[in-house]
Queue: 4 jobs
Job 1
Amino acid sequence: MPATSLPEDISPLTVNRLSVYLRCLRRLQELGETRTSSKALARRFHLSATQIRKDLAQFGEFGIRGVGYEVAELKEGLETLLGVHRTHPAVLVGAGNIGTALARFPGFSSGGFRIFAIFDNDLDKVGRRIRDIEVFHSRDLGRVVAEVGAEIGILAVPAAAAQENCDALVAAGIQAVLNFAPVQLEAGPAVRVKNVDLLIFLEELAFFLK
Amino acid sequence: MPATSLPEDISPLTVNRLSVYLRCLRRLQELGETRTSSKALARRFHLSATQIRKDLAQFGEFGIRGVGYEVAELKEGLETLLGVHRTHPAVLVGAGNIGTALARFPGFSSGGFRIFAIFDNDLDKVGRRIRDIEVFHSRDLGRVVAEVGAEIGILAVPAAAAQENCDALVAAGIQAVLNFAPVQLEAGPAVRVKNVDLLIFLEELAFFLK
DNA sequence: GATTGTGAATAGATTCACAGCT
DNA sequence: AGCTGTGAATCTATTCACAATC
């Protein structure tokens, strides 16, 4: 029986691993497996069995001692924990290369997120649609964010425009920002910001090249 | 005087922060600042002054006690440490949404990386060019990777095709893989893999929404 | 007999506090 | 006087080892 209580201090590292576990369970379900164990998951997906158990233990008891975990049950438990059992409304700011790719990315819609609007200040793009999502002018950001009740803002604008667009998102009441621009954004403490800097990923790889 | 010695056990966390510091220094240089200090950096970019010093200390002495750091000198030191003082040859596998956006992304070329070839198995795409980079058929991956001497492979293919393409990259002698597919890849211990899963980023944000 | 869940032990990362330079 | 570089102290994360359960 999943308890799904929500303790206060959970590390992002743990949360990221929960996402990984969720992927693994979805994969097992595709393969028709109905039951698993921390050891089986660890072996197959190169994880740590102890860590899986410790991570889950923070949220309740998901397994049966001596037996293991019910795949469907644990999967649903993780979906609930991560909050992807419902769909989160999001908006995308920036309809350039990366923004367009994100708008077309099918994974979001099937994974608990939906982009309801795109913003750009290029008048050639305003009014067009990317995958059925309308592109609005940036000046309408506040209004549209409120209308669609967006919780998450995805920032895919040039570095120089990132802070002002972040400010606009925050002013419009957004709660979390996924930022693809290579700048350290300044948002209030109430807004969670996650930075995704493609160059930093490559630089990490470059560092470890011998 | 930068020592730029290379100790053996450096954490990826440290390396990512070095990348952040490098961005900060570039920004200061744009603004015409010629000298800075750990405290000044920390205040301006919301970092930890002690941590900046500790991170740098692992690689030598970059500053002057009582004075601070020379912006240009520290910037170059970090570029050398991260290995971006030279350009790393890379290839991109997958010319779909994300692959195309990556190929067009100007940041790579200006940041120490260059994509020399794109691979796809869609014959409609083979032979075309994206931003002057030729799209080859995936069957030519081994030959072309060897020809251009690619060190880094960027994987932007569907999940189901990720492992086989990773295998092909590894067989061709690639040393590091940046993987955008939502799968835990199996590469040898000699190959460094960095996973970038957009859904996991959003799930982290979703978790922390109240 | 097998596996979970967990306190204790270990390893790793960050912060503190100050000696050592300029 | 002010800042770097660093050992010591603290905090965080992971792993070990085993009691509890099926």
Note: Residues 1-5 of chain A have pLDDT under 50 and may be disordered.
Job 2
Amino acid sequence: MLNIAGLLKEKKLTVTPQRVEIVNLLSTNRHINVDELYALLHTNFPSISLATVYKNINTMLESEILSEVQIFNAKNVYELAKEEHSHIVCTSCNEILELPIDLQVIYKEAESKSAYSLKSASLVFSGKCPRCSSSKV
Amino acid sequence: MLNIAGLLKEKKLTVTPQRVEIVNLLSTNRHINVDELYALLHTNFPSISLATVYKNINTMLESEILSEVQIFNAKNVYELAKEEHSHIVCTSCNEILELPIDLQVIYKEAESKSAYSLKSASLVFSGKCPRCSSSKV
DNA sequence: CTGACTGCAAACGTTTTGCACGGTA
DNA sequence: TACCGTGCAAAACGTTTGCAGTCAG
């Protein structure tokens, strides 16, 4: 069970019911975009504003409570922050899968080939999920 | 030397001076965004419209003459399409480097772990280029 | 009590669209 | 000539901002 208030305090953020609910929703719905989040929030906060959702997402991105995943040809989705990992997006149904892939070797290769000092990497695969692969196109 | 008209015809696109110039500019300026492209086009096409730039980029993306690179916290940039490759973006000066990295092993790992059938991958590193690393912050 | 957050409305930047005209094939 | 592309203006879209009122600490 996630201690959401504690998480927010740890990052020196004010604990508001809206923020708690955003984190709560993202803990059970990884990879949803702003509109989906907004729609879900309406259940408990009928008068919540989209601006509040954006402001809180941005605040929590800066505090690294959340992270953002950029999806090709779709709106960014959000997830609770955790160690670096890759994503696979189904081009048919847009389902997103997380994948713990060790990029150590690739990092090394990239650093030696580029002479850059690297901080982070974003690896997103596109493909078809098993369900969409098996169904006729 | 690039046969631009031939490239366009091959993809069954009408050859217009604007399209030729867009491809021409991208052949010497990889990784520029819409605004930069628009500004460069103004030299030879003082009355070109931004809508035309967008329409042509979209058309040529669909025909796979161009490809789009999504840059975190910055506008998308464009390049002439070629084999899959990775990118490194400098977080200080935004310079973009292309890197031919073999993702075969990673693809295999991702496929077996996910059961997805994968089509493509986007790998973008963030870091500091040698110039920005050496200069005082 | 003070500062931070919320909700509303308006503003903003980017991209797309509709349309009349002009160019390509 | 028939169709497609261009340029303009307006619309659409996603996100941010300013502000007055409210809530958290």
Note: Chain B has a mean pLDDT of 95.
Job 3
Amino acid sequence: MPELPEVETTRRGLTPYVVGRTIERVEVREPRLRWPVATALPRALAGARIGTLERRAKYLLFGTDAGTLLVHLGMSGSLRYLPAPQEPAPHDHVDVHFAGGGTLRLNDPRRFGSVLLTRTPRTHPLLEHLGPEPLGEAFDADYLYRASRNRRVAIKQHLMNGRVVVGVGNIYASEALFRARIHPERMAGRIARARFEPLVEAVRDVLRDAIEEGGTTLRNFVGGDGEPGYFRASLRVYERAGLPCLDCGAPIARRVLGQRATYYCPRCQR
DNA sequence: CGCTGACCCTGACGGC
DNA sequence: TGCCGTCAGGGTCAGC
């Protein structure tokens, strides 16, 4: 489920409920996530106060005086704040109970997500080698052009490579390339310099638009407030195989690239 | 070093 | 109805 817009939606939704709160108790019902939840984690966090909630790539970083809690939602994860106690449902793997009431609850059916505690987030192996934020200043046409030289991979896979730029997942890679009119299979290293301005703008625009709509709910994504995202209605190619291109009417094509479904207009995108 | 494909896991859905 | 194959928004890792 979550790409950058969904994670950012979650961050914004949770911030008023969790920042400034003191953790009373952490309850781990199922530690077998992408990486096992450390047995020492609940004890380490008990009594800690959350001072900040930030996002880096698709990670949520809860800054506490006991270290930084890193949460990744994987494919199927979601975080919700519950003001009142609620019976855990299937796949509700982790609860963070706050002093004074309220619970932050992680649900993740496929368990590709992760919950980690670190004292040194900047140099954590999972974060250290990440590329620039797509909505930050470092991500511009010059950067992406240089990062693409001599690369033989398809531009779509290139955009989804977290070392190149973070946060661009399967939905928004297809959507951005449609907006930039670039064929997803075009070799990254063979794209003309002039096309990188529109491409970078397309990536930024589609992510910004999606954040404004509260992300994309395909199956089960809900933001921190439990609301689904509404960007699905704005998707132009994703999951539209066979339907007419909104620009030219040609049927949208679907092809598998690097084991991921890829959607594009074979007429508009070159 | 760059790149490909296997793999982690559960659930929904369509075909038979 | 039930079984089976396919697919799903994430990422790491081994191997060439």
Note: The first helix of chain A runs from residue 4 to 18.
Job 4
Amino acid sequence: MADQVIALKRDSSPPPDERNFRVKYAEVLNPAQLEAVRHREGPLLVIAGAGSGKTRTLIYRVARLIESGVPPAAILLLTFTRRAAQEMLRRAGHLIGDRSQGVAGGTFHSFAHLALRRFGAPIGIQPNFTILDRSDMEDVVNLLRTRMGFASREQRFPKKRALAEVVSMARNKSRALEAEIEADFPHLREHAGDILRLAASYEAYKHEHALLDYDDLLCRLAELLRTDQPTRHRLSDTYRYMMIDEYQDTNLIQAELVRLLAAAHHNVMAVGDDAQSIYSFRGANFRNIMEFPALFPGTKVVKLEENYRSIQGILDVANEVISLAREKYTKVLFTRREGGFRPLLVRAQDEHTQSRFVAQRVLELREEGVALDEIAVLFRSSFHSFDLELELQRRDIPFIKRGGFKFIETAHVKDLLAHLRVVANPADAVSWLRILMLIRGVGSRRAERLVETVVDSADPATALAAAAKAAGKAESELGRLSGLLAELRASARPAEQIAIVLNYYLPLMREAYPDDYPKRERDLEHLQAITERYRSLESMLADMALEPPNDSIGDVLAIDPDEGYLTLSTIHSAKGLEWKVVFLIWAADGRFPGPQSASPEDLEEERRLMYVAGTRARDELYISYPMYMFDRAMGYVMGRASRFLEGVRPEVLPTAVLEEAAEEPLDGEGK
DNA sequence: TACAAGTAAGTTTTT
DNA sequence: CTTACTTGTA
């Protein structure tokens, strides 16, 4: 190490090597954090309450490992989003410089993707496989559903969405499909036999066309590691120090992946909070984190209970919400942050009054000097913010929305990418169908036949041109498509390839969407800009499937405001984040929890979700709900506060009834 | 036979 | 608002 470092001032005798460390760990971490950061070999479980410095602990441990001489490339940091991994490595970089960039980091899915591309051959995985996102999966399921004759029979057969749901859930819970139907979808029991047959064809179809869905990425990596010893050893030797964030939201397959990857060394640090487990719909079970010590005997457990984020008033609400849970959790948060502010339960007249309250308070906060990017509005379901979005637009308050619909899933973006996907993987029948059906005169029937001839040929463009001869009036269009594909194969830069597709696709799009094609064009330009940084088509397509750009900036706003954006987010997408001021809207029974939360387990998870929402706030927390809300079945009904707030004492969460603001006309130009 | 248009129903959360 | 299935047209 080139830099001479000043020795620690503290009298306590640090381990000898600590003297040379640039970071003074003992001075900036609390005892529990320090214990976790100093841990070096063997399994470690950190139970970290909300705001207890969990991320900080991970970052400092990365830094300390590297300072202790561990090569960065031997560290694997698995997080819930890649963004989280990048952010952590960036912060670690502030501590120890750019050595942190050598750390391998990402999500389980992105890690599995890379591993399978490079080492998947022993279990029959082609390196150019295509990743199916959820809607691609549904497309395939739907195709098979029709092909197998389940579409137009008298008996009602489940829709593609439900089918994809069951199939995926079974895998995420590591259950046989039959058992999954019995357990979570008993109403589909009568179709169990057909669903099983459909699922089998789905597996065969994916295999035949080099397609892997999200679940395959995890399951097949587990398969690879189980069955192929050289690969297991290779990966386990490469990543000698593993760190896993948000462990409470992992499922059994992910736990198995961890076990297999760590087989050679058991150097695993898992970090999580059982009270913040909110992904059971993805097969996660908060008990997994409790069973970590059983998976790795000899696990050291460290608890972080001091909260550095929120003032006590906010923690009081969160603690009371979670204390009424049926399962008891492992810790109670406390803070030394004093502050007079009490969170407020705001009862609004109706949804629009709620929106205007939020908008107005946001403007007041801005007057008080709180930047917009220090404020967030959270909600249970992404459509809950629709009315608020209109109100914010009306008042020129810039915002970004996280979670919910992604622009990557809109038809025009999928169309565009499908043209590139067939170039990367000519066997990708889903994408072939998609781009063929865009052509006038080609419907599902003809498209399927064309796919059959094209998929197995060595030169798809030529095969397509040959097949087009028999296609009647669609011939010339198919010829153009063939030309396009040839042109795409000749180009190497993704952004350039997108430009080539745009040239072909934009006219088709204008015809297909005469109402709003300008907006869609802007989306595609945005996409082109995003893809400018990619050098390989494969990596670009993989990123689009695994880490899609989902911050859809409100399309009204063309320019970046200096003061940043107000954040609108689902609670799920707000996980791990924090803001100075948080609004939680639609905290009403019937919305949060929603009507689909029926079982006690579902409700417990909703309660944890409420806990997550509340603990995102540092200084101010406003929870609101409308007194009258519209119900599709019953018209306007009286709204009640969420049941999770009922047990919270009024001293801890006082209620304010919202008076109509006088300066504002009731009927704005919204709607 | 194959495609396009029209009508009717269902809707969380995410990799 | 999207998706599914029926009916209408070439």
Note: Residues 80-81, 107-110, 133-134, 159, 161, 214-215, 217-218, 278-279, 281-282, 380-383, 403-404, 406, 440-446, 545-548, 570-573, 594, 596-597, 605, 609 of chain A lie near DNA strand B (CB under 10 Å from a C1').
